[in-house]
Amino acid sequence: MPSTRHNSLFIVFEGGEGAGKSTQASLLAERLHLAGSRPVRTREPGGTPVAEAIRELVLNPPAPMSDRCEALLFAAARADHAHQFIYPHLAVGEVVISDRYLDSSLAYQGAARGLTVADVAELSGWATENLVPDLTIVLDVDPRRGLARAQDGNRMESEAMAFHDAVRDAFLALAGREPHRYLVLDADQPINVIAEAVWTAVSERLLDLAGPR
Ligand code: TYD
């Protein structure tokens, strides 16, 4: 359901395990709210009842699943999330802040699982009718430190270090390909320093939306 998206912004936080995405997402939402915007927070996998059910399946499967099944489940969850949640909120001029989106699939399934970034990009492009974020903020952390502070114990965390290194490299490579759509921040910096850099980038985009004054 692609539609006009004036005055809306779609912002995504990405990064490996324990990068501090949800902390930054909630700080950004508070700040947007104070600035008079209408932020809505969401996450992947998840964000709709069906996508949350898929989340449960893909993160806690009853038995090991194949890599392609995993990629399709993340894409299926994203399809529902985009169609039922993200597009409708953007259509009414809101600022959607998502904890993970497309690039997580490119990094985890495409790069780290080896399904190729190109194939997974095509799958997610189809699933979302090519919905691309306006700004993707990559919170970059060495997985050795990130995993030490990750708390949710999801099944990706038990993958080998080479897997997490591949995820990190993929996020950085994606950001390097389209620097105008990405902000890469060192997640080891203090929380308020990261929040300030996020706010600078987001407020620039809000000014762009407001147009020339
Ligand atoms: P979650 O508990 O939300 O972890 P985090 O707090 O790190 O975001 O679990 C999501 C896990 O699913 C995380 O390990 C990343 C992984 N993932 C993928 O592999 N592919 C995807 O497309 C998405 C959205 C997440």
Q: Concise description?
A:
By secondary structure, the chain is α/β, with parallel strands linked by helices. Helices cover 55% and strands 13% of the residues. It is built from 8 helices and 5 strands, in the order E-H-E-H-H-E-H-H-E-H-H-E-H.
Compile the SSE list and pairings:
Elements: E1 9-15, H1 21-34, E2 39-43, H2 49-59, H3 67-91, E3 95-99, H4 102-112, H5 117-128, E4 135-140, H6 143-149, H7 161-177, E5 182-186, H8 191-210
Parallel strand pairs: 1-3, 1-4, 2-3, 4-5
Helix pairs in contact: 1-8, 2-3, 3-4, 3-5, 4-5, 4-7
Number of E-state strands = 5
List SSEs in N-to-C order: EHEHHEHHEHHEH
Mean pLDDT: 95
Rg from alpha-carbon coordinates = 16 Å
**Proportion of strand residues:** 5-15%
Q: What is the rounded distance between the termini? A: 31 Å
- In order across it, which strands form the biggest sheet? 2-3-1-4-5
Count of helical regions: 8
Low-confidence region ranges: none
Task: Report the biggest beta sheet as strand number plus sense, adding barrel if it closes.
Answer: 5 strands, parallel
Overall helicity:
40-55%
Q: How would you classify the helix and strand content by structural class?
A: alpha/beta
Bound molecules: thymidine-5'-diphosphate
The rough form would be described as: globular
